[in-house]
Amino acid sequence: HKIAVLISGGGSNLQAILDSIDSGYLNCSIEAVISDNPSAYGIERARSKNIDVFILNKKIYGDRLSDEILKILSGRVELIVLAGFLSILKGDILKSFKGRIINIHPSLIPSFCGSGMYGIKVHKSALEYGVKITGCTVHFVDEGVDTGKIILQKAVPVLEDDTPEILQKRVLEAEHRALPEAIRLILNSGKQREGIK
Ligand code: GRF
User: Fold this and answer.
1) How many other C-beta atoms are found inside a 10 Å radius of the C-beta of residue 16?
2) Is 13 touching ligand 1 by the criterion CB < 6 Å?
3) Site annotated as Raises pKa of active site His: where (predicted)?
4) What is the model's pTM?
5) Which residues sit opposite 54 in a β-bridge?
């Protein structure tokens, strides 16, 4: 199974996928890593594994980003994984790869999600609201933001003296288990249509 991973930052979720491939948990290969941020540390993680890296600076590509990604990936991969990818995909790629793009979000959707809700902000909001349980969600990507069918979720407790940083770390650990699990579920069951029932 050939997949692509899209990143914008540190790439710890990319690393979790790389580790899952090395351990044999995932039976797939990463054909390409695409970053919309030229200074994403995830680029180094990919390069150290001799994976093709494409840097498509969103400041330069702007509205053309999605079409450029489609050009690169069309016919090359069966699944596109957004792992800490902050640009919003739109247009033809959503049709060509319908049911074959997944995203991981650091909350239990439909809470604390939608445009502008990413990174540490998600955890700040969860703490402000006072939820006792939060977690992460892997879902299919559709035309909306964080609105596609949910594939799997992992819950984590919110503790008394949690800071946003402490909570983010706890959720990130759950993400690193959830994303490889979701990829395996999809690749092994071939259920690449919208949602898994
Ligand atoms: C983190 O906020 C994570 O929760 C979300 O994307 C951000 C960066 O993740 N999925 P990564 O370390 O770049 O994978």
Assistant:
1) 22
2) yes
3) 146
4) 0.96
5) 34
Instruction: Decide whether any atom of ligand 1 lies within 6 Å of the 106 Cβ.
Output: yes
**Active-site residue flag, 123:** no
Provide the edge-to-edge strand list for the sheet that holds 2-7: 53-55, 29-35, 2-7, 79-82, 101-105, 133-140, 150-157
Phi and psi for 119 in degrees, rounded to 5? 60, -145
* CA–CA gap between residue 69 and residue 61 (Å, rounded): 10
Residues 36 and 44: their CA atoms lie apart, in Å, by 14
**ipTM given for this complex:** 0.96
Q: Whose CA is nearest to atom 7 of ligand 1?
A: 84
Per-residue confidence in pLDDT tens, the chain, 197 aa: 999 999 999 999 999 999 999 999 999 999 999 999 999 999 999 999 999 999 999 999 999 999 999 999 999 999 999 999 999 999 999 999 999 999 999 999 999 999 999 999 999 999 999 999 999 999 999 999 999 999 999 999 999 999 999 999 999 999 999 999 999 999 998 655 555 44
Q: Which residues are annotated as a binding site for (6R)-10-formyltetrahydrofolate?
A: 64, 103
Three-state DSSP state, 33: strand
